[in-house]
Amino acid sequence: METSSPQQEARMPALDPEPTLGFNAAELGALAHLYRGEVYRSTLWRTRLDQTTNWSVVTTGLALSLTFAGPEASPLPLILVGLLVVVFLMFEARRYRYFNVWRARCRLMETDVYGPLLRGQGVSMDGKWNTLLAEDYSKPRFHISYLRAVGRRLRKNYAYILTVQAVAYYGKLAIHPVPAHSIDAFLNRAEVGPVAGLWVVLAGIAFHGTWIAIAWWTWRIEKNLRKPHKLIAIA
Questions:
Q1: Where are the domains of the chain?
Q2: Residues 6 or more apart whose Cβ sits within 8 Å of residue 128
Q3: Distance CA 64, CA 56 (A)
Q4: How far is 63 from 165, CA to CA, in rounded Å?
Q5: DSSP class of residue 142?
Q6: How far is the C-alpha of 200 from the C-alpha of 79, rounded, in Å?
Q7: For the chain, first and last CA: distance in Å?
Q8: pLDDT higher than 70, residue 217
Q9: Average of per-residue pLDDT values in the chain
Q10: For residue range 85-96, what is the model confidence (pLDDT) as tens digits?
Q11: Separation CA 40–CA 24 (nearest Å)
Q12: What is the pLDDT of residue 227?
């Protein structure tokens, strides 16, 4: 059996029991293409979100035009457009769940791949971000519930649209075409066919109150669940 001298052992490189793992050039290139693909999908679904928001804005503007077109114009279009805006909100929340998947993946690669790379630290396989991303590709799932998606879109866009609808409806009853000088006159203007004005107004208060409660409740959920290094897009 051959043996080595102490001088030869001194010249031998020391073995690292825990070598630092990283990506080679080909793997980094694949990651770059993967990031580009996720950015493309994120941008595509972002455009779909903007479409439903635009529909809501256009239909609300149309309802305002019809409601304030003349002294005898009915406030009913504002009621109907409120329901239509909610339908668009449901569509957009469903689309947002898909958008959130692509956005979360892009954000994870930006913070844990490109950030360290630009700081000169290199890209390491530390078993955290890469495992999390690999599991998300192996077992894809939504990262946010439907209710939380509704709350996010409500707080970001639809709360303002519904506020305009509510203020316009109140203005129609209170001051158009002439100011209402009593509660009875105000409620008479709110009548919709056989439905008394009082019930219509109460239904409107309950309608908007429900969305305020959903926005606040989902905001509290977001505040409690938001943690770093999770596949949750930060709005």
A1: 24-225
A2: 112, 229
A3: 12
A4: 9
A5: -
A6: 9
A7: 67
A8: yes
A9: 86
A10: 999 999 999 999
A11: 25
A12: 61
